[in-house]
Every structure is written in C-alpha cells, then in structure tokens.
Amino acid sequence: MEGDKYWQQFLDETATFNNIVLGHLLPSSWWVTLPHFLQTWIRNYMAGTLLYFISGFLWCFYIYYLKRNVYVPKDAIPSNRAMLLQIYVAMKAMPWYTLLPTVSEYMIENGWTKCYTSISEVGWFAYIMYMAIYLVIVEFGIYWMHRELHDIKPLYKHLHATHHIYNKQNTLSPFAGLAFHPLDGILQAVPHVIALFLVPIHFRSHIGLLFIEGVWTANIHDCIHANLWPIMGAGYHTIHHTTYKHNYGHYTIWMDWMLGTLRDPEDDSCQKAQKVQ
Hints:
Blueprint (H helix, E strand, L loop, with lengths): L1 H24 L10 H31 L13 H18 L1 H11 L14 H28 L1 H6 L23 H13 L8 H17 L14 H10 L10 H6 L5 H12 L1
Helix pairs in contact: 1-2, 2-3, 2-4, 2-8, 3-7, 5-7
Keywords: Membrane, Transmembrane, Transmembrane helix
Family: Belongs to the sterol desaturase family.
InterPro entries: Fatty_acid_hydroxylase, Sterol_Desaturase_Related
C-alpha cells in the first residue's frame, strides 16, 4: 500500500504538469476526458513545439539580426528556405520525439525505474552525485549511438543522412538542431531513458534535461564557437558536420578525446590558414 502511495506521487505530478500546460493552451473539453497517457503526450508535444520555436526564433533573431556580421558573416547566414526546410523536418518528427518522454513518464509512474520524487529523499550531496553519474551515462550513450549512426552504413543512409544535408556554415542554423529522421532523434535521446534504470534520478530533473536537449541542440548548430572547455560547443559540432568523422560527443569533448575522434576548432582554423598561405 505504501508503495502504491509513493508511485501515486509521480502520477499526481504529471497530472499537474498536464493541467498547467493543456489548461492554458486548450479548451478543457478537448482533453480532460482523454486517457492520462494521451494527455501527457499532447502536453509534451505542445511544450516541445513551443520550446523549439521560441528558442529557435530568439536565437536566430539575436545572431542574424541584432548581431549581424558579428558572429556570422552575412554570406554565411542560412537562407530562409534552408531554415524553413529544417523546421518542416523537425515538425514532422516532433510527435515522435515527444513520445519518448511520455513513455519514460509512464515507466516512472509505474515504478519501473530508479526515479525519486523529492531531493529531500536523498539529500543534496547524493542528488548531485547521482546527477553527475546520470550525465556521464548519457554522454557515453549518446556518443556511441551517434558514432554508430555514422559507422553502420544502413543506419546512416536511411536515418542520419537526413540531418547531414546541413553540412556547411550557411546551411546550419538553430532550427537544424531537431531536423532529424524521427527514429534518429529518438535513438540519440534513448540514453536518457536507459539511465533511469541504472541510477537514481530526480523526476523533474530528468524531464527538464529531456527538454533542455531542445535548447542545447539549437545552440550547437548555430556555428558560434564559445570555446568553453570542455564543453562540446558549436565550433566542434560544425566540424562534425563537415568531416562526418569527428566530434560525436554531446555535452562535452571527453569521449572524443579519450577515443581519438576529437578535432579542435582552433587547430582546424590553423590548418585552413596554412593552406591559404
């Protein structure tokens, strides 16, 4: 009975999220009678779509208009047509992307994972340690998933190639961050879900990290190199889009450094300068 009450807390929390998002965006008659799982999926879909457009438009406005020719030369700004195509690809995949957090919430609500509801259950020190382990697992998993999407030729041809048509600075934009084949995008996010079974993780932190992925992928596709070691910034990821065999990492450069696939933007710039001379 106590166990049932504990897992009910997760269900109550997701129901609250549903009420907040759907209650502000849709008439109640459209969704209140729907099954909980379907409500959760619609909430994740709408929240994911809003996050994609808000972060994408704000970032594009900043780098292509307010900071025009500061971060990106005028002739390197992607065309409106290129960005609209990226939006089209992302929107086709969005219903499938947002199914993943919906499934993860279902598994958490049913007690299949190691998630916990409140940081007070474990304390701040354990929370931070578990979060660090979780992020290491995610980084490891995404690196290898991404690398195999390149190395296994059928996977690249039928899935990942959809994303790699954006292979130059003037075709990459924040909107390219989610422009994947649906299955490709899901596979690269699956390590977040696998980690739920391996390490205790705070429920809201897990959901937050899944949605932060949308902001992060927009950031690493904007071609602006912030040079914040050991962060896998846009400079590294732009090289990935041009060489196809370097910088598979997600948040950091550690996996690439350890496995010999790292290519530094500064070294790359030096090599290009030498060729010009």
